[in-house]
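Anyone else keep sequences and structure tokens together like this?

Example one:
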Amino acid sequence: ELQALAALQPTPARLALLGSASKRLALLQQRAGHGAAAAQTQQQVFAAYAQAEALAAAQGPVDVLLSLNRMAAELLLHRGAGEPHAFNADAVAALRQRLAERRAAAPDFFSEAAGIALTLLQALAGRCLAASAATLHAQFVELHQRVDDAGRWRAVATQATFVLEPYRAQAAPAEKQAADGLLNLLRDHAR
């Protein structure tokens, strides 16, 4: 079992795999109407990515995707309060710096998508997706014009679904409409 392996000999890669599998389980639980189980699984997602990020930091540079996944799970843990959530400003600044370095050294689809995803997470945390939706939409469309690869877009759509579906369930009408628009766009890109 993956959880046992990650507990027995934790590595950033094993913990990230555990986080990813748990993320998909949480999506399925949420869609099946098992909110309490999904919330518990989301805590496991956060724990796995937080531990992976901490282990990676002790070993050297942290992959930006570990940080983004941890932040996505953190966001879901705080969504029930109904109030905006502030990510640690130093962690966000460090992530932006790592993203800039990655784009400068080895630009690729995922480094570009990660920058947009960070903006999305911050908009969700601030409960201001409607105000950011047009910019996010334009950035996703521009990236899709450069990289039209459904397989890569599936990963982006899955990550967005993980945070946008729970968000839209509790959002005001304008926020829900913005979430639906982005989900539809990303799902179209993933086809």
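And example two:
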Amino acid sequence: SRGLGDVYKRQTQTDDVAQIGDQTYSTLSAAIEAAQNNATITLLEDTKENITINKGITLDLNGKTLSAQDNSKTSVITVNVTDTDNDNAVTINNGTITGGSAVGAGDENGGGIKITSGTVTVSQCILNGNTAKNGGAVYISGGNVTISQSTINKNTATNSGGAIYMATLSTNSSCTLDNCTVEENSADFGG
């Protein structure tokens, strides 16, 4: 026999994985597409999805895990915000990013997060178990990146930068680590 709690639980379960305000979405990509600048998208459950962020948003992982789709051969998160004024800053916080494998694909950079442009803050995150040719956890080819209060561990690069690879030394790009733990990452050159 089922209690009323079981019936209530079944009726309220949805397949939605992300939320902006009161609106829920069945995919994180759909939430990003619908989001206005400066919106906060909250992850509602552990999710396997590769996403691209192309506008200023906050992605609150809500203590959940965002992992790559099976056999996707790409970054878990790609950030490419070409309009880089302060209203277009990207914040990713409060969760785990894992399972990215940017190896054997056309672009083999950035297993966990690939940043090509934008002002990006990663805070209170765990990046582990990601693989790429360059930048097992994080690959930066442009933009200003701050990673704070995060753990970057057990990521692998088959070439350079097991944890982080900065592809440019341009004065227009930067990467700052603040109160982070970086350990047990490996690469053929520069772990």
